[in-house]
Every structure is written in structure tokens, then in C-alpha cells.
Amino acid sequence: MPELPEVETIRRSLDPLIRGHRIVSVQVLQRQLRIPVAEDFEARLEGKCVRCVKRKGKYVLVELDPEDVWVLHLGMSGKLTCFRKPCPIVKHDHIVVRFENGHELRYHDPRRFGLTLVLRNEELFQWPPLSHLGVDPLSAQFNADYLYSAMRNSKRRVKDLLMDQTVVAGLGNIYANEILFRTGLRPTRRVGRINHRLAKRIVEATPAVLEEAIRWRGTSFSDYRDGEDQKGEFQNHLQVYNREGKNCRVCPDKIKKLQVGNRSVFYCPTCQT
DNA sequence: CGGTGGACCTGCTGGC
DNA sequence: TGCCAGCAGGTCCACC
After folding, report:
1. What is the pLDDT of residue A223?
2. Which of A11, A58, A106, A182 is catalytic?
3. A231 catalytic, yes or no?
4. Confidence check: pLDDT of A1 > 90
5. Are the CB atoms for A96 and A105 separated by under 8 Å?
6. What average pLDDT does chain A have?
7. Is residue A5 annotated as part of the catalytic site, yes or no?
8. What confidence score (pLDDT) does residue A123 get?
9. Other CB atoms closer than 10 Å to residue A126's CB: what's the count?
10. For this structure, is A56 an active site residue?
């Protein structure tokens, strides 16, 4: 479900609701997530204050006071929602965190592809999934030279490379498809056949798409909600994703869908070469 | 090492 | 109405 714009929207909505507040109790209803929830998970959160909520790629990082970082990844169907007062627990609510001001933070994830753990500050960027993440696509490090050097000498498809979290952290299937539409490149194009000028076009389209999606508070097809359980609107502004057979918004052609490597790719045969 | 295909899990939709 | 196949925003691992 959540790619960078959704995780960033959750981060922004959650931060003001829990920042500075103390965790009084932690309840884990389901420990079997992608990585089992550790035995000491509850004890390491209880009594601590939230310093701030950050994001790294698709990971949510809740920094705690006096120490430790609560790390979450939402997988495909994870929701992280803060309620202002206690609410009934529903199916697939796996973790309930209660604050001294009465707010309740819920982790809810039907498919259980998500994960959560607590790390000490100094362990954070040594923990392999995080330590292996590539550059943030909204940072200056994501530039044409960087992308071009990641692409040359590789035979991969450009969409697979954009979704490789060790190259760029935060893009998934929706936004990789959207970025390539706006770049005019077919998702199946081999990166060895992309020159520096085209790499620059990808690099320019990427923050444009992501920032627009953040302004619309993410893409909600079914599950995704922000930290206050509100839907996003970017599904109404997608150019190709989930638009098979619909008219291209730029030319008279229709959007096509292919299965490539077990995932759907969407593109306009006229606009993308 | 690089690239591919399946596995993990539940829920929803569409065809019969 | 019921059943079943296929598909879904992500990641990891075995295998070639």
C-alpha cells in the first residue's frame, strides 16, 4: 500500500498528535508480522515520550525520549492511525499504544506484511534494511549523475531499478509507473539504453510526482488512510496506474497494462517509448 | 553477482 | 447465492 507519499502523509499527520506525549501502555494483539514482534517490545515503549516522527524511505521512525527509536514498515496493507479517544478494537488491529493524554495509536494490517521493532539510536542505521536504503528521491543526492551511474552497465528494466530500495528509497509500483509516464519512457526499457539526458528527465519528474501526491495526501484505492484515518485524493490525478483501457490524458491513445515480473505495469504506447 | 519467480497473508472482485 | 481464480500499494529468499 504505502509508498513514500503515503508514508510522508502519515508522518506529517501523526507527528503533531503524539509529539511530546508519554506512552502509558502498549498492547500487542498479534505478534506474527513479517518479523515477529520481539518479547521486550512493549517494555521498551512504555513510559517513554515521543520526540518526533520521522521517515526514511517507506519506514516510519518514531524517536523516543530518553532513547530508542520505534521503527515501523506498513507493508502492503498497514495503517497507522491515531484516535483522539479510545475506540473499539477491530479485526486486524495488531498493536495499540495508549498515551497519557488519552490518544490511542493503532497499527492495523490485514495482510501482515508489515513489521515493527525498537532499536537503540546507535543501532538504527546499522540495521540491514535501513542501512541498505538508497538515497531519498526528494533529496539533492538523487541527481542525474547518481541515477545514470546506477543504470549504466545494468540490464534491468527501468521500472525495476526505480523500485529497488537500495538505489532510491520510497518508490513503489504506483509512483514508478507515474514517473515513467511523465518521463516518456516505457517501464520495460532496459536501463543500459538510457543516456544521461534521459536520466536527468527521470530525476526531474520524480520529485514533481511525489510532491504533487503529497499535496493530495497520497493515493487511496481501498485501505490507505493517513494518521487521522482520512483518505488521500491522488487516485483522482493518476495518469496511468490502474487506468487500463482508459484514455491517455495527453494523446488520443489508450492506457495499456502488462504483467512484468509478477507486477502490473501501466503505460501509454504513444507517449512512452 | 545479477536477475527472476515464488512465497508470505487476507480480502475483494468478477466470472461462472 | 456460492465458489473459485486472480489480483492487490512490498519485501525476501532460493535458484539459475
Report:
1. 80
2. A58
3. no
4. no
5. yes
6. 96
7. no
8. 97
9. 10
10. no
Question: Which nucleotides in chain B lie closer than 7 A to a protein CB?
Answer: 2-12
Q: Residue-wise over A130-150: b if at least 16 C-beta within 10 A, else e?
A: beebbbbbeeeebebebbbeb
A265 CA – C8 C1', rounded, Å? 13
Complete DSSP assignment for chain A: ---HHHHHHHHHHHHHHHTTPBEEEEEES---SSSPPPTTHHHHHTTPEEEEEEEETTEEEEEEESS-EEEEE-TTT-EEEEESS-----TTEEEEEEETTS-EEEEE-TT---EEEEE-GGGGGGSHHHHT--B-TTSTTS-HHHHHHHHTT---BHHHHHT-TTTBSS--HHHHHHHHHHHT--TT-BGGG--HHHHHHHHHHHHHHHHHHHHTT---SSS---TTS----GGGG-SSTT-TTSBPSSSSSB-EEEEETTEEEEE-TTT--
Q: Residue for cell digits 482520512?
A: A230
C1' of B4 to CA of A219 (Å):
29
Residue A68: the pLDDT is 98
State yes or no: pLDDT of A222 exceeds 90: no
Instruction: Determine the pLDDT at residue A120.
Output: 98
Query: What's the average model confidence in pLDDT over A67-86?
Result: 96
Predicted confidence (pLDDT) per residue in A9-46, tens digit:
999 999 999 999 999 999 999 999 999 999 999 999 99
